Amino acid sequence: MQKNKNKTEVILKIEDLTVEYFSKKGKKRAVNRFSLTIKEGECVGLVGESGCGKSTLANAIMGFVPFSSGKICLKGNQLPLKKQTQVREHYTNVQMIFQNINESMNLRQSVFDYIAEPLRNLKKCRGNDLDRQVGKLLEITGLPQAYGGRYPAQISGGEKQRVVIAKALAVQPKLIICDEPTSALDVSVQALVIELLRKMQKDQQMAYLFISHDLPLVSYLCSRIVVMYDGEVVEIIPNVDLMTELKHPYSQDLLEATFSKQSDERIVKKQIQYHELQSNGCQYYPYCELAIGICNESRPQLKKIGEGHEIACHRYGGKHE
Amino acid sequence: MSEKRKNVQEIIFYGLLAATILIAIMVALANQIAPHDPLAVDYSMILQKPSAAYPFGTDNMGRCVLSRVIYGLRSSVAMALLITLISFTMGTFLGMVSGYYGRVVDTLIMRITDTLLAFPGLVICIAIVGIMGAGWKNVVIALAISGWVEYARVSRGMVLSLREKEFIKAARSSGCGRVRIMIVHILPNIFQQLLVIATFNIGHLILTFAGLAILGLGEQPPAPELGLMLSESKQFLQLAPWLMVYPGLVMFLVVMLFSLLGDCLRDRMNQKTSQ
Question: Can you give the pTM of this predicted structure?
Fold first, then answer.
């Protein structure tokens, strides 16, 4: 899983991406100056709490939400997509597995038609060839062939998620964005789905952008981990083995949160207040237990503190260490 | 819900469906079923009580009330279906376009519906029929113009909530264009709800059509029309109550049938989605 050294081709390049939402209260920056590069066959985990802009980022990459500045470039295809041919090419390169299993399928479309749709539209696949390909996808995802004729109401949540995965795999994309694919499933089914995703990645050398708030899960599946807070990258580690090396106070909170109930509650409390804050300093300043004077005055930039390990914190990688 | 109650509901639903089909057959075969010509005047048989030859009696010109009721029902039902078809298609199409495309298109269509909603339906009808002249064609045009608004409003609302769902995103990422998303992914998901509204509306339209005839704006005498029959029978109410009772009763039953059918359809739909 970790054979992504330097030579492989870059699939996704995001530079200084900013996505803003407009509401009556004014502008809300969901994603702020976000940069990320994903190489072929690489598995990147994106972690952060709810509302930090993870899903918005995924939607921006898929071309579902417009962005105000920055660049998204996928296999040489620059967003926003303009021509229909460009749109088709984009979606043969990237597919998404959605969070809400009960909403990700059309209730009036059979499993077969659902899986066949991208093949029909993007690959112009028809007739016997189509039947064969859909059959193969059902087999890969471990679903019985008879399921092709079923409707979403007739299958279970875990099966639905496998159908969604089958659809995402149909056009053999270079990159799959998984937006918390297991959060709506119970634990035993989660394991099955994760195993399936892992197998797919090994067999077909696809790249994943795996979005989650569950650090242990991400560490199981991904090599590189990006920690996001309030629309910005706060820390990147190149390797899951360095997970204990996570240094940013927020990353540490996140790490702790998976083990102790107490800090979990603390994070919940933070979450409640955090939209109301506007400052020039570090976004995490009001909650940071290790904050120093400068944290409230200037925003920290991403700095390298080790091989591939980057962090945006005044306490590391600079004069304030 | 208990098994028994569910079964009862099923029986009621199929009963209503059977009754609807029966009426459809009856009005379609009006020529064969009606015992007399609805327009044939026979002055020797004026205001006869219901009898074997004239099951619903005769009116002040000796015409068979049963035959007139059957023919009248035919024109009412046909008219209601035609208007529903036109306003359903038009309203659903405009509502879907409005909800899915949003922005200028949405504003434009919604302001038109607002304008139409600002008038009571009957006022629009009277205005249009008043300008274009009485007669069933103009009534159809008038009722279709005010009728599509409801379908447009409802379908727009449903499209607005559907378009944010993940399966629409999934369809987009499958390379579906806007037209395909609307036809394959949105329409089947809103069709049933709209069908329920249509069923309710058929009953309502039959009443409106009769109302317009009473006002002298719909069908003109001597055409057999339920509303017209009611209005003509006013002066004979004490002398020959059957002139009013039978057309009124038939209209009441048919309108109720469509309302109940609409209710049943809605219940069945709720059951299916909540399973």
Answer: 0.80
